[in-house]
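Consider the following input, taken from an annotated entry for Ktr system potassium uptake protein B (Microbacterium ginsengisoli).
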Amino acid sequence: MAGEVSTPGPARALGTWIARFARDIRDLSTASPARFAVLVFTALILVFTGLLSLPAAAADGRATPFVDALFTAVSTVCVTGLATVDMAAHWSAFGHVIIYVGVNVGGMGVLTLASIMGLVISKRLGLRAKLIAASDTNPLRAHAGPVNEGQTVRLGEVGQLLRTVALSTLVIEAVISVLLYPSILLAGIDPLTALWQAPYYAAMSFTNTGFTPNPGGLAPFAHDYVFLTTLMVSVFLGSIGFPVIYTLARHRWHVRRWSLHAKLTLITTVVLFLAGAVVFLTLEYANPKTFGSMDAFDTTFQSFFLSAMTRSGGFSVVNIGDLNGSSLVVGSMLMFVGGGSASTAGGIKVTTLAVLALAVWSEARGRPSVNAFGRRIPSDVQRVALSVVAWGATIVAASTITIAQITQAPIADVLFDVISAFGTVGLSTGLTAELPDPAAYVMAVTIFMGRIGTVTLAAAVAASSRSQLYTFPTERPIVG
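Applying the prediction step yields:
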């Protein structure tokens, strides 16, 4: 209209800033999925910390202290299961809903979830979205440079994988909920409460978190073998990883068509499960505080249950603090290994252990290459496996020393809880619930680094790799 003076409004400047910010985020997500994952996980943790700090999230209607809200948010989003508060008594119904949503978001993987949402909205996946989702299924993509797509799910299969992730999560948790519901009723819990506890247990088992909604944990179900077996199956399905579930869904019993990753994951998982059960049975059968007071069947069954849960499940029937010191060491070893890659489990991953074991075996046999099931494992995968173990051991050592110095607690208890945090397992000797605030922050950082993944963490803080057009002369130092 004539006579009006046009002035650049703040809305235009704000829109320009938002567009620039969105462009920077898109560029970051493609150029460095690892750093993008760290940022997204951090943002989610801050959001859930704010939600859990609300008075409505606590059962007593008072705001939860920041350190407890932050620790619970980290443990929830990183599907760990450690807690500094009584999870059953401290949180209100609203708080439990927040935790339930958090473990499902964290269990599927933030980047995978973002890609699934994009697939639902746009009905298609562009190259950018495929690259983001693919970084959740192959840690090697976190580095710059070419990636051998034959090592895991190919980019062309990412859309099918995402559908498998979403569908398997919904179907498995729904089936587990139905199977658990009768056992919860038989434990004396009223039908309405059991109606939400069943999906809660299903989510906590499939995501390998281990939180329990009722006081006393699994005490009401200590002799309900159907309930405990269902939990073990759910934990196993969550720990093998979505790429393995995808492979099994595509090829079922055609073992020859399984990927090398699927074969190594399943074989190593079963071997560790059986070996752990035998060792726990041997070490604890005479301990009156744990298995010594049980009959032969109970002792055997609980040995298998403990072996499954120390891998990443986080549930426990016996008091972990009552285990013999030798059993705590074995449990720490199992927790450090963890579950499968691109799964809800933590640790250095079973495929990392398998690759290193095959490399040691090949070296002992004098073979120039590492082979398995008619396939050669390239040297870059072996280097990543070594890096994962080195980073993991460094994180555990630094956290253990720091927390032991702060708390002056027994080093065996500190080491067990730190490895449980790094492996996102959730088992505790009782130390975590009594941590002072500084030690709780250190433990939260350990959980975060364990869930993000040592490869992703290393790639996120490292500078972009540069091409090198020359090589130095070779000289062999003495090792061993």
